[in-house]
Each structure stands twice: as structure tokens, then as C-alpha cells.
Inverse folding.
């Protein structure tokens, strides 16, 4: 089965693949940070009693969660340059490459998923904590920022990281707008050298090793930080 | 917003652009349902194996789950479509490349099916494991064999418990079916993109595609609520009885 398997192709392509991997990791990290920040805001909105806040947030989350990621990527690939044109008046939308479109698409898409995780995390904080905070005279922002969110995030770290692993796998989909992430690099080399078998199997192995190690790490972390009951 | 382009004759293939949309919906639904058949059967078997006391079966199923869920779906698609015909025995490979009907479609179905199977397996496993251990012990003590215990005690309960998570996996399979466009299946997202390239009505056609996906989600959610209500187990939290 591995007769005629050309490992040399992989070796020669390593620097290029490495750049692609840096791109994937960078996109994952930025989208994860943006997604968690925006997701926290959305979660607080969804949990608010004010219908002006919770209805739009709920609608946003449900809409994004029922739309495929690829379609969302296409949406922002189309919308972001239009928005930039509107904002800056520059009809060529210079400086806004497909990278920013992809980053915005991933951030907004992941925010919907992070919102649900964070909402569950906040709801898992005992109500007595909030009542005690208010009883001490803290206002909403103080109670949320210093009492609720720190406890919620502590419990959520493993799930947030697991979602990060899923996000890392999802970044391979920037392939559809021609960006050179790890998968994009692998597929470009595969097409150029006519070595589809080697490159795609290699990509699978690398993704597997990274995601498997990351999920082992998350499992250990979870075992360590789960408070004793 | 001007949707009149939908009734215009399409660039190729006779028909209108609206027909292209329906072709897209047809492939999205076909890929998803066929993949679900694989995902559900393979996933169920693997999930059950992970709960059995058989160590080798347990290890095998765990290995499958870890292998499949740590590789992105896009890579699965490429491996089934580009790599499979090269690494199977050459007669079969030649047939896959030249004789097999609809190679993109079946590659997408297998990729999506076996990928989702790993997720279904996890849900089925956690469903069965959430049944109190006493039930298994009681079943074995009354003289049922292990297969009978699964058939009459664990599976009827386990499947009802996992209906909600399986529903969300079923919804995910519709969304993930869009990845099939990377190997050339003309499903809904692919059709939307093609139509936008031919008509420049990007905003309208993407809106239409999004609405269709939302409708599919709503339809499945409502249908599964009915199923859930019919099959609910009395006496559990959330069943209200």
C-alpha cells in the first residue's frame, strides 16, 4: 500500500506547510479570543430580563447555529468588503484581504457557540452567590465581573478549550475562499506535485496528533480543576 | 432585494435559477439522510461496544472515536474522494475512478457518515452510561444474558434518553453536508455560490439559502419534539409525569 509513497514530497513542502500551520493556529487563537469576548456579551444579553437585549441575542445565536459555517464564510467574504466600502468610502476596500473576512466570519460564528457554553456556565453558578453579592451592595457590573464570571469561567475552561479544538478543525474550511492555512497549503502542494495521497494522509496525521494531544491535555486539566464535591 | 432573477432561465442546463436552488436542496437532503443512516447504525454499534465489558471491543470503539473526531471533516472528504481509490486494491480503485456512479456523492456520504458516527457513538455511550448501574445488575440477576439485558433493558431506555443530543447531531449533519461542495457535490451552498457568480444577486441568493437551512432546522426540531413526546419515559425530570 505504501509502495510508491513519496515521503520526499512532504519533506520538501515542510516550510510551506509550517507557514500554513502558523496561519491556522493564528486564526484559531484570534477567533477564539474574539469569540469568547463576544460570546460573553451575548450570554449576558441572553440572560438579561430586558427583552430588548435577550430577544436580539437569542435570535442571533439561533440564526448562526442553524447556518452552515461554509455559508457564513461565503457571507462575510461577500459582506466585509461591502461594509468597508461603506465605512471608508474606498471603493476597492484596500487592505481588507480574505484573511479579515475569514477572521470576522469565524469570530461571529464561534461567538454563537461560545455564547451557549458561557450561558450554561453562568447558570451553573449558585443563585446564592448573586444574591449575596447584591446584599453586600455590589451593583450588576461588580457582581457579574467579580463574583459570577470568575466562577463561571473557572468551571468552563475545559469546554471552552474543547470548543477551541473544534474551531481549529473548522479553520480548515477557509480552503473554500482560497486561503493558505495548513489544509490549504497541503492541498496546493498536493495539486502542484500530483501527490494527493501523501499530502492528504499527512494532513490527516498532523491534525490527528495535534487535536488528540490537545484533547488529552483538556481531559487532564478537567480532572485537576474540577472542584471536589 | 429583488428575487425576480430566480424565475429567469439559468445559464446552463435548461430550467430556471429556482430549479438550481431545488437541485441544491435535493442534494443537501440526500447527502444528509444517507450519511445519517451510516452515522446512526455505525455510531450505535460503536457506542454500545464502548459500554460492554469486552475489553477488545471497547478499545476498538474508543480508537475509532478518537481517530475520527480528531480529524477535520474537510480532510475526511478529501481522503474518501482523492485518496481511497489510490490505496485500495487497484481493480477496485479503477472501478471507483471510472465505473462508480456519482463518485462525489458517495464519497461525501461515506465521509460525513463515518465522521458523524464517532459523534453519535459518544452520545449513545453517555446515554447508556447514564442508566443506573442497578438496572444492569438487576437484569443480570433475573437471569437475562448480557445481550438480552441490552435488548430489553439498556437500549430501550438509552435511546430515549439520547433523543435530544441525537437531534442536534442530526441537525449538524445537515449543516456539515455543505462541506461536500469541496469535492463537487452540488448541494445548497454550492448552488447558492454558483448562482451568485452567474447573477451577482449574492445578497438575495445567500439570504434564500440561509432561510432554507433555518427552515430545515425548524422542521427537524418540531418533528423531533413530537417523537420525544411520544417516547418519553414517565418519572424522569423533564417529562412532567
Amino acid at each position: 500500500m505504501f509502495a510508491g509513497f513519496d515521503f520526499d514530497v512532504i519533506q520538501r513542502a515542510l516550510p510551506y506547510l509550517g507557514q500554513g500551520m502558523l496561519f491556522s493556529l493564528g486564526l484559531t487563537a484570534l477567533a477564539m479570543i474574539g469569540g469568547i469576548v463576544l460570546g460573553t456579551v451575548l450570554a449576558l444579553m441572553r440572560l438579561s430580563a430586558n427583552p430588548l437585549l435577550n430577544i436580539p441575542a437569542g435570535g442571533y445565536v439561533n440564526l448562526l447555529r442553524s447556518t452552515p459555517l461554509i455559508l457564513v464564510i461565503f457571507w462575510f467574504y461577500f459582506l466585509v468588503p461591502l461594509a468597508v466600502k461603506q465605512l471608508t468610502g474606498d471603493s476597492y476596500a484596500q487592505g481588507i484581504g480574505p484573511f479579515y473576512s475569514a477572521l470576522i466570519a469565524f469570530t461571529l460564528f464561534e461567538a454563537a457557540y461560545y455564547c451557549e457554553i458561557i450561558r450554561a456556565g453562568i447558570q451553573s453558578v449558585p443563585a446564592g452567590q448573586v444574591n449575596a453579592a447584591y446584599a453586600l451592595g455590589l451593583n450588576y457590573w461588580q457582581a457579574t465581573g467579580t463574583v459570577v464570571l470568575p466562577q463561571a469561567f473557572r468551571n468552563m475552561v475545559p469546554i471552552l478549550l474543547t470548543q477551541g479544538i473544534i474551531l481549529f478543525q473548522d479553520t480548515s474550511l477557509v480552503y473554500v475562499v482560497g486561503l493558505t492555512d495548513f489544509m490549504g497549503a497541503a492541498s496546493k502542494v498536493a495539486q502542484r506535485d500530483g501527490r494527493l495521497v501523501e499530502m492528504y494522509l499527512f494532513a490527516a496525521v498532523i491534525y490527528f496528533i495535534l487535536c488528540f494531544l490537545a484533547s488529552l491535555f483538556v481531559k487532564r486539566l478537567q480532572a485537576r480543576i474540577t472542584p471536589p464535591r | 432585494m429583488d428575487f425576480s432573477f430566480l424565475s429567469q432561465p439559468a445559464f446552463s442546463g435548461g430550467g430556471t435559477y429556482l430549479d438550481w436552488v431545488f437541485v441544491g436542496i435535493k442534494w443537501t437532503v440526500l447527502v444528509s439522510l444517507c450519511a445519517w443512516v451510516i452515522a446512526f447504525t455505525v455510531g450505535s454499534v460503536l457506542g454500545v461496544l464502548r459500554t460492554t465489558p469486552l475489553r477488545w471491543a471497547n478499545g476498538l470503539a474508543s480508537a475509532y472515536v478518537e481517530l475520527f473526531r480528531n480529524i477535520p471533516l474537510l480532510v475526511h472528504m478529501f481522503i474518501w474522494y482523492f485518496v481511497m481509490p489510490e490505496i485500495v486494491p487497484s481493480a477496485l480503485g479503477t472501478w471507483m475512478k471510472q465505473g462508480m456512479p456519482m463518485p462525489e456523492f458517495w464519497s461525501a456520504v461515506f465521509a460525513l457518515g463515518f465522521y458523524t458516527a464517532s459523534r453519535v457513538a459518544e452520545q449513545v455511550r453517555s446515554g447508556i452510561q447514564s442508566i443506573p448501574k442497578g438496572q444492569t445488575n438487576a437484569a443480570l440477576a433475573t437471569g437475562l444474558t448480557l445481550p438480552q439485558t441490552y435488548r430489553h433493558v439498556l437500549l430501550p431506555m438509552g435511546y430515549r434518553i439520547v433523543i435530544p443530543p441525537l437531534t442536534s447531531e442530526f441537525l449538524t449533519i445537515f449543516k456539515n453536508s455543505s462541506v461536500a461542495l469541496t469535492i463537487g457535490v452540488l448541494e445548497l451552498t454550492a448552488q447558492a455560490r454558483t448562482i451568485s457568480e452567474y447573477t451577482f444577486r449574492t445578497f438575495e441568493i445567500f439570504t434564500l439559502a440561509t432561510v432554507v437551512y433555518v427552515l430545515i432546522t425548524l422542521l427537524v426540531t418540531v418533528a423531533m419534539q413530537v417523537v420525544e413526546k411520544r417516547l418519553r419515559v414517565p418519572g424522569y425530570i423533564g417529562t412532567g409525569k
Notes: The longest helix of chain B spans residues 17-51. Chain B is about 75% helix and 0% strand. Chain B has a mean pLDDT of 90. Residues 49 and 57 of chain B are 6 Å apart (CA to CA).
